[in-house]
Write a structure and sequence with these properties.
Layout lengths: L13 H26 L4 E5 L5 E5 L3 H48 L9 H66 L10 H13 L5 E4 L4 H6 L5 E4 L1
Antiparallel strand pairs: 1-2, 3-4
InterPro entries: MADS-box/MEF2_TF, MEF2-like_N, TF_Kbox, TF_MADSbox, TF_MADSbox_sf
Protein name: MADS-box transcription factor 23-like
Subcellular location: Nucleus
């Protein structure tokens, strides 16, 4: 049977933890020594146990390894900053070149700085302008079509409203006509002396205006003397 997979986690048992530390430290130092011999590498290894005890290994001198480490680290930081600055400078140069190309292309589209172009470049520029002009015309036609459709829709709505108002006007006119027919067909008694009222009725028929009926006191003097009440109509 093969060995089971070891779970990499902290060993809670103190004795087992110390035994494992000793075994693995020995194996780690052995691998470091083999690396230094096989690859001609300068190796420095420092390990502190959980109790604070120091264990180290080096194939040269620990002091020289540490000094070399600090020098290499500082140099790496400087090199990193320099490399980053060069990277941004290169990006800035690329952006400047792209901006210059865009400005030059814009001027060429405006018909300027064409002396450096050959026949093929001029043909490509002409095709680009024709395509742009065609797209602009299509967009303009689409906008005009949309506006015409919107105006037609508004015109249809206004036409419907106009028809509705016309029908309402006809209904009101017909109702007024029927009311006048009913009023004038009742045979209202007129006073012989009241010619102004009669003339007013004729004018109302000619002018086609609304008629207002109100109750008023009778104007006959003989009726007042006899004491018999009577009702009369006054047209205004």
């Amino acid at each position: 049977m093969g060995r089971g997979k070891i779970v990499i986690e902290r060993i809670e048992n103190t004795t087992n933890r110390q035994v494992t530390f000793s075994k693995r430290r020995t194996g780690l130092f052995k691998k470091a020594k083999e690396l230094a011999i096989l690859c001609d590498a300068e190796v420095g290894l420092i390990v502190f146990s959980s109790t604070g005890r120091l264990y180290d290994f080096t194939n040269t001198s620990m002091k020289s390894v540490i000094e070399r480490y600090h020098e290499a680290k500082d140099h790496h930081v400087i090199m990193s900053a320099t490399a980053e600055a060069k990277l941004w400078q290169r990006e800035a140069g690329i952006l400047r070149q792209q901006l210059h190309n865009l400005q030059e292309h814009h001027l060429q589209l405006m018909g300027q700085q064409l002396s450096c172009l050959d026949v093929k470049d001029l043909q490509n520029l002409e095709n680009t302008l024709e395509m742009s002009l065609r797209n602009i015309r299509l967009k303009k036609d689409q906008l005009m079509t949309d506006q015409i459709q919107e105006l037609n829709t508004k015109g249809s709505l206004l036409h419907k409203e106009n028809i509705e108002l016309y029908n309402k006007f006809n209904c009101i006119h017909q109702e007024n006509t029927e009311i006048k027919k009913k009023v004038y067909g009742q045979g209202v008694n007129e006073h012989p002396t009241d010619t102004a009222v009669k003339h007013r009725i004729v004018n109302l028929e000619d002018e086609d205006v609304a008629v207002n009926l109100e109750l008023s006191q009778p104007q006959n003097v003989e009726s007042e003397k006899s004491g018999t009440p009577s009702l009369g109509f006054q047209l205004q």
